[in-house]
Amino acid sequence: MHASRKLWTWLAVICVLSFAVLGWVGTEIYLSAPPIPQQVTSRQGEVVFSEGEVQRGQQAWLSAGGQQLGSVWGHGSYLAPDWSADWLHREALALREIYASKQFGKPFVQLDFEQQAALSERLKREMRANTWDARTGIILLSPERAQAVREVAAHYSALFGADPKLDALREQYAMSAGSLSTPEDLRALPAFIFWSSWSAATDRPGETAISYTSNWPHEPLVGNGPTAGAGIWSIASVILMIAAIAAMIFYHGRAGEGDDPVPPKADPLFDMKPTASMRATRKYFYVVIALILTQVGMGIITAHYAVEGQSFFGFPLGQILPFVVSRTIHTQFAVLWIATAWLATGLYIAPAISGHEPKYQALGVNVLFYALLFIVAGSTISGWLGTLQHLGNDFSFWIGNQGLEFTSMGRVWQILLFVGLLFWVLLLGRGLLPALRKPSESRGLIAMVFLAALCIGGFYATSLTWGPRTHYAMVEYWRWWLVHLWVEGFFEVFATAVIALLFTRLGLIAASTANSAIILETIVFLFGGILGTLHHLYFTGTPTFVIAIGAMFSALEVVPLAMIGVEAWRNYQRSKAAPWVQAYKWPILCFISVGFWNVVGAGLLGFAINTPIALYYMQGMNMTAAHGHAALFGVYGMLGIGLMLFCLLGLTERAAWSDKLLAPMFWCLNIGLAMMVFISLVPAGIYQAWASVTQGTWYARSPEVVHSPLMETLVWLRVPGDVVFSVGCAFLALFAFKLATGARGSNYVVGSVVPNKR
């Protein structure tokens, strides 16, 4: 107990210090973010962009699809360009041609070497010069640059409008004509994209050759290349990671692991009869499977749009289900079904652990279910209609699609979801309270489950921190608090503690050992994970020290993953500890596959892109998608499915349970995911990385690369993996259908967990 108290103290200290640093970084981002101009004018006094147009342009871009339609500063989807990189390249080419025409009366390509070199150097000097005047709030442009900006702005207004001359380009970008419908938005959008590219090329005040985005994107025309800090801190992070892994292996080898206890002769949970609230969670899991099927279907459609931008095998599907909508549902449902599985697991295990069900608990579980169903359906339908009908910026932010990846639902729905999560914490706390009050060996584990749940509910409040006109750098800062800390942080702690609790209830792990192990694992994970959030923010208008902190602590995130294989092997051994454990074979195998994908998806593919120098060239490319698919489904998805199977097993008469469909489900999901990642996404990401290194970010995301024969072939090579994966989903759905229509027990006692007389 004394050792556990020391570990709890260390955990509290690490969390307080880490969040203090993360909060301080946020204040520094706010103070040093790229300035938003009151006006952009030429030296002749001509207004290029007026006051408020940058902020309105940001709103217009987000309402048109935002991060579901291309990206800005590398965050978003991969089919349309990164607009900041695209604008920067287009403006540089336009300005160079204007120079050549005015000075030599010829196109740039017809000039000799000395003339080209002189104009190229002049271009770099002008694009990197910081002409922001803090006193007046004006960015001042030369007449030539103002002309170039107007030319690129006209292209963007036509592209996001309905100019038929750009229909072919929209097809390549999977854009719908008339993405923006009002003249005011079409004038303002270029202001925001210009500002994002201006921030990417203009030197910071008092700095030389370092832009507000630390020289991202790679653009040789304006002298944008990786900074010295990106290279140095990448090397330092690799050294730290190797040293930390060696230290963990040394500690693990020296301390060793206690032997697992001798398992009981019979399943301790065999005679447990679920209470009313536990049985009420059954419908959650069927909704989880429905969300999985919808998400996979939308993923297939979204991937196909990479070949036919607005059609599905010739059918003009984009008219009713445009790419923006299909990708929004695909990414949003991925988080929602995983979260739903974990929330339902918490509600299921609370009375099972405490042995008591509070009054009206079942009513609360049912109310929460229908509230969550209303939020999921309402946010999806309103976002879809808002996109199709172009209902404007205010509708998009408050009710429709905010245009932010993984946090796309409108603010009203976010508020309702936040209230729902707090209600879930209340229900979970009521169920766990008797067990928390009663001294026991597993009380530490139960406390960890509740604290993680409290953080899951409380930290969703970060989705409410930005407004319609919040600086884009601060939107990204708070968005990653939610996506990284909420999804990749506290949900992982919650799930790990739940699994440990389940194994202790089965008698496969000693509760005293699990207590200390879970606290220590949480310490190691959060020590790197909290400040590791900053690796998402290297190039989003943040101070340069963010690269140093993010690189070092994101390297530490990999350290606990190095030992995941050991834990997976121990779980495999536990699955053979006694004949009755075979009843839990497939939930345990799901937990083992989580270990595999933690090492491969989160560890190998994650660290492949997380060092600053790697991410500089690969941010916004398909290597990020490879990491995202392998980690999100392989780790969190398989974990959710494993927990779901465990709960369904407890909710089903053993005579009605059959494993026949679970074997093909398990292997098809894992093999299909591996095929999808390593046959298609990883090769596509490597090809794009080569294009980014050799010619620039703009080129890696251009139609020349994205729609090249090689890239389109790699898209088609996703089909075998997608088919195998979809077959796995079909087996899961068939299993659930048979379970729902099969024989079930009907006797249960409300308010207590009692033996099931069989």
Automatic annotation (TrEMBL):
Cited InterPro entries: Cyt_c_oxase-like_su1_sf, Cyt_C_Oxase_1, NorB_cytochrome_c-like
Pfam families reported for this sequence: COX1, NorB_cytochrome_c-like
GO terms classed as biological process: aerobic respiration
Transmembrane segments: 230-251, 284-307, 329-350, 362-385, 412-433, 445-466, 478-504, 516-539, 545-566, 586-609, 629-649, 661-682, 715-737
GO molecular function: cytochrome-c oxidase activity; heme binding
Domain named Nitric oxide reductase subunit B cytochrome c-like: residues: 37-218
GO cellular component: membrane
Keywords: Membrane, Transmembrane, Transmembrane helix
Keyword field contains Membrane: yes
PANTHER family found in the cross-reference section: CYTOCHROME B SUBUNIT OF NITRIC OXIDE REDUCTASE, CYTOCHROME C OXIDASE SUBUNIT 1
Protein name: Nitric oxide reductase large subunit
